[in-house]
Design goal:
By secondary structure, this protein is an all-alpha fold. Helix content is 79%, strand content 0%. The chain contains 4 helices and no strands. Helix 3 runs antiparallel to helix 4.
């Protein structure tokens, strides 16, 4: 893989969002697992909070509230994308 870490995160978000929107919990779950595995738990509260959000999205998906999970992840994805845009300005 030659993508930078931020782009890999965006790809994982895209897969999770698409999975939830298609109601494909296998794809969404794998992508969310990748997001979880990519967390640096030494980063403190931010990582812990993201872990909780990711777990909550998984719970929403299992309850059939896939659009809600996709919406939460879309907001996070947009934030990651905006951070990169600001950084590159």
């Amino acid at each position: 893989m030659t993508a930078d870490p931020r782009n890999l995160i965006l790809i994982a978000y895209d897969r999770a969002i698409a999975g939830y929107r298609q109601r494909d919990l296998e794809i969404a779950g794998r992508a969310v697992t990748e997001l979880i595995n990519g967390l640096n738990m030494d980063a403190g509260d931010i990582a812990k909070n993201l872990l909780g959000i990711y777990q909550y999205c998984g719970e929403l998906g299992r309850k059939g509230q896939c659009e809600d999970a996709a919406g939460i992840l879309q907001e996070l994805r947009d934030t990651w994308a905006a951070v990169g845009d600001v950084k590159n300005s």
